[in-house]
Amino acid sequence: MNTSLNLPERVGPKPETTHGLPHAQVTQHGSDGIVDQMRDWAFSLPGVDEAHSLVSVPGARAMVMHDGAACNHDAFMIGREFAHIHPKPDNGSMHVQLPRADALEVVKKGWGEHHTLVDLGRRPVGLVMVYSPRDEAELAIIKSILGRSYEYATGKEIAA
After folding, report:
1. pLDDT tens-digit profile of 11-52?
2. Name one Pfam family in it (predicted).
């Protein structure tokens, strides 16, 4: 795995979010087309099944590793779920599990924030909400973050 995501700073103000449960993005969502591209890419990764999330709101689509896939179990939120994409009205934001250093970089560079449970001390640093991509340039960056979560879950590098 690469040592750093090397993310650029996210442009513009941080979106409004909720800080309870469910933890959601309220403003600055990407268009349906951008979010659909992200979702299609996410569920085309080798060994990933699309399922109902076991820990998110109804309609959230979870990225779950196939039962037969070799996995890093520290990378899972529950079962074999390592990420999930939120449905409308929170269109395209997602929760992902990342290595600690990557989670800190995502937050520092403005691409997401720690999950409410991390802020409450009930989960270790690594579970972050990544904001919805607003355009094609942001989509490429969000795919790199989501790809890192996949690499964490599988131990395999991928090309975004």
Report:
1. 999 999 999 999 999 999 999 999 999 999 999 999 999 999
2. Luciferase
What sign for the dihedral angle of Cα 34, 37, 42, 62?
A: positive
CB 54 within 8 A of CB 81: yes
Residue 151 has which token pair?
């690499």
DSSP 103: H
Q: What's the pLDDT at 140?
A: 97
Smallest CA-to-CA distance from 87 within 35, 27, 142 is with: 35
The C-alpha atoms of residue 32 and residue 52 are separated, in whole angstroms, by: 20
Helix ranges, 1-87 (H): 32-42
Q: Does the model's pTM come out above 0.90?
A: yes
Secondary structure (3-state) at 147:
helix
Look at the alpha carbons of 55, 133, 24, 106 in this order and tell me if their dihedral is positive or negative: positive
User: CB of 81 within 8 A of CB of 62?
Assistant: yes
User: Left (φ > 0), alpha (ψ -120 to 50) or beta: where does 110 sit?
Assistant: left
